[in-house]
Amino acid sequence: MNNKNLFKVFLGGLVMFSVVFYSCTDLAVIATDSEFIELEGGAITADPADLLATNYNDLGSVTDQANIYSLSAHSSDEMIPPTRGVDWGDNGVWRTLHAHTWDPAHSYVLGAWNQLNERVFRCNRTLAASPDASQEAQARFLRAWYMHQVMDLFGVAPFRNVTDGVDVNPQVFTRTEAFNFIMDDLTAALPNLPVGGPAFDNTTATTAACNYLIAKMHLNRAVYTAGDPAGPYTFDGADMDAVIAAVDAITGDGYSLEADFYDLFNAAGNTETILASPTGSGNNRVRMTLHYSQNPSGWNGFTTLSDFYDKFDDGDIRKGLDATPDGSAFSGIGLGLLFGQQYNDDGTETIDSRTSLPLFFTRDVPLAGAGTDKGIRVMKYHPATVDNSKYVLMRYADAYLMKAEALMRKGETAQAMMMVNDLRDLRGAPDLASLDEAAMLDERGRELYWEGYRRTDLVRFSKFNDAWQEKPASESYRVLFPIPALALASNPNLTQNPGY
User: Fold this and answer.
1) Helices marked H in 393-498 — which ranges?
2) 318-371 residue pLDDT tens
3) Can you tell me whether residue 153 is helix, strand or coil?
4) Each residue of 128-164: pLDDT tens digit?
5) How far apart are CA 172 and CA 460, in angstroms?
């Protein structure tokens, strides 16, 4: 037998069990729910290219409607998960996210914690496998991407080296320590990443993707390093300058705003996609909101809220485009925010199979006891193109608005408003007469709805604990999610976030 050590991996405090058969022969290793690592002389013996491919495939986790995505979207004012009879009850997992009444035993809190920390560890594994300079830069970027989300959601970040044995509890970075660790990774990665211009199939790390995350980190640094996670936050001019410089670098790589808003989410090429998931697509985004009686049949789940819908001006293409029946598949389904009577591909009214009435999506939607027709649906990824699309993780409009916000926070409001109005002109919306924090937050919501940014934005603008439709004002400590109860039980280095 070679001088190898085999470890079961404990990720972020979660114990993962396995059944193992291992010997000096070629007997197979049989495992369930675990990661297995072979070490020789302190280095991983696996191929770093294969490990890096896994790191990229892991990006597909955010395309699910639960876990990571649910914590960011359902806890915000842009999405509501109504219970319709017994449908979408699920022991309250969705309702508690919207109402801000989650606790440390919430299954999606645990699911997001496990998924993200597992992915950080897998990047550690790649970095321990003697990667070349390019592979190392990509693994560092991906580790930063995953750890950033752990830090953002939970306020701490557990960390385990691949050489740590099962009896070693993961160390735990404070939020400030995690911020510095992530920035070190991004700084080290940037010089060795390729320069990649706009392309829909941008599914690997580039200088633009790295600069995007650098900008995101500096924009939120006031939040991540605040003495109280709920604020108040003090935005430093040097951080805002760093945001502007990072976004200018992305622009220098050839990115620009896309004239056709909905082409960003289908198979067409565009000028905005900085990073997309190589696995999965927006198919879950289609089915989780479409009605059972539409074609294709949806899951009749999540909707937006009428207050959010009312943030849009008429004529703003982001508010929605009517269906244009032309005989092609799924042409009866519109784009954007779907309100009112729905139609089939041939132009006839869609009938709700459960009520036998015309299917009319309503403005009103209660959190519990909702009818099948309640709520304005959201369609950025269209069923006619979703099978060929990539799920967009980073796009230029977000970076563009980060720069505008940074300018505004520096007091350069006129330039910031000019940028925002240029974007609104492109989207068919009238110019803003003035720009303040409330208007900037609303503009980010109009451009980026249901893309997974809203919770972080609401926290940064000190609006996350406000009351909105179907949600009373919530406690200030809920700007962070709790550390899952199972993680606390298995890692004594973890301490529960205040309030939980």
Assistant:
1) 396-409, 413-427, 437-448, 454-460, 485-490
2) 999 988 766 677 889 999 999 999 999 888 999 999 999 999 999 999 999 999
3) helix
4) 999 999 999 999 999 999 999 999 999 999 999 998 8
5) 24
Ranges of beta strands (E only) in 119-255 are 157-159, 171-173
pLDDT at 6: 33
- Give the CA-trace dihedral at 150, 152, 155, 157, to 10 degrees: 30
Q: What CA–CA distance (Å, rounded) separates 292 from 329?
A: 17
Q: Are the C-beta atoms of 294 and 308 separated by less than 8 Å?
A: no
* Burial 322-348, CB ≥16 within 10 A → b, else e: ebeeeeeebbbbbbbbbbeebbbbeee
Contacts of 102 (CB under 8 A, 6+ apart): 96, 109, 478, 481, 482
d(CA 376, CA 319): 11
- CB-CB contact of 471 with 98 (8 Å): yes
Sign of CA dihedral 424, 81, 297, 450: positive
Q: What is the pLDDT of residue 194?
A: 96
DSSP letter for 266, please. Answer: S
Question: Nearest CA to 117 among 151, 168, 140, 71?
Answer: 151
- Looking up tokens 């830090």 gives 151
Burial 83-96 (b: 16+ CB within 10 A, else e): bbeeebeeeebbbb
284-307: string of b/e by CB count within 10 Å (b at 16+)? bbbbbbbbebbeeebbbbbbbbee
Cα(87)–Cα(131) distance, integer angstroms: 48
pLDDT at 26: 30
Structure token digits, residue 26 = 């070629």
Entry pTM: 0.92
End-to-end C-alpha distance for the chain, whole angstroms? 49
> Contact, 121 vs 143, CB < 8 A?
no
Q: In what order do the strands lie in the sheet with 320-321?
A: 320-321, 335-338, 377-379
